[in-house]
Structures are given as C-alpha cells and as structure tokens.
Amino acid sequence: MSEPDQDAMADAWAAAMEQQSAAENTTQRADMPEFAEGGATPGTGPNIDVILDIPVNISMEVGGTEITIRNLLQLNQGSVVELDRLAGEPLDVLVNGTLIAHGEVVVVNEKFGIRLTDIVSPSERIRRLR
C-alpha cells in the first residue's frame, strides 16, 4: 500500500474515532443500578462478574425475504435476491437473536464494520421477548 493510501486510511480511522467519541458524549445512558466493587449491587445477591466472560453471538441483519423452496433451488451465482429493506435503512444488530441496536455500515481499512446509531432500551427488549 502506498504512503498516500496509508495516510488516507489513517485519516479515515481518525474521523471514524472522532465521530464515535462525539456520539458517545451525546448518548444518554439507560438507568442502570450502580455496582459496588466486586460487581454486586450493595445489599443484593449475585456477582455480575460471573457472566462477563460468557460468549454471545452478535450478527448484523441487512434484511430478509420470503421465497418458495422452488425459487430457492433455482438460485445460482449471480442471482439477486430482493430484501425487505430500502437502501440506506439501518441494519439490525442482534445478540443471540435478540435485537439490541440499529447501525450503519462503515468501511475502514478495507474491512466492514458497523457504527451503532440507536440502542434498544432494556424495557423495549423485554417487551419484544413477550
């Protein structure tokens, strides 16, 4: 990679980090109990540290569609599948299949990423589970 390309990439990363920092400063945090040292809320039971290393699956959903098995079997390289989302709509960010946020695709250093634009509130997540 040439030096101008590296400089452009460094500038792109700097801009992305600056945007993220600005977004973090304006994001309001959900009301969460403060945890005492050791991870437990004062006067309560379990220590949250126990679950912090449990792996979860995170996925980004661009969109979806419903097709018949006949049409599914006819797909081949170069086929186009129309999705139920418009171009530019935010992607869904799912953790273990549960919607937790919306975001937009970013490309930095030739790799895809996602910038979170909206976090689903804990009460909304619980409502969607029912």
Question: Could you describe the 3D structure shown?
Answer:
With 130 residues, the chain is α+β, with helices and mostly antiparallel strands. It has a domain at 55-129: Surface presentation of antigens (SPOA) (Roll). 28% of the residues lie in helices and 22% in strands. The chain has three helices and four strands. It has helices spanning 3-26, 69-73, 122-129; strands at 58-61, 91-95, 98-108, 111-119. The chain has a four-stranded antiparallel β-sheet with strand order 1-2-3-4. A hairpin with a 2-residue loop joins strand 3 and strand 4. The radius of gyration is 20 Å and the shape is flat. It starts with a helix and ends with a helix. The model is unreliable at 35-40 (pLDDT under 50).
Shape type: flat
**DSSP E strands, number:** 4
CATH-assigned fold name of one domain: Surface presentation of antigens (SPOA)
Amount of helix:
25-40%
CATH superfamily of one domain: SpoA-like
- The CATH architecture of one domain can be named as Roll
What is the H/E order?
A: HEHEEEH
Q: How much is the radius of gyration in Å?
A: 20 Å
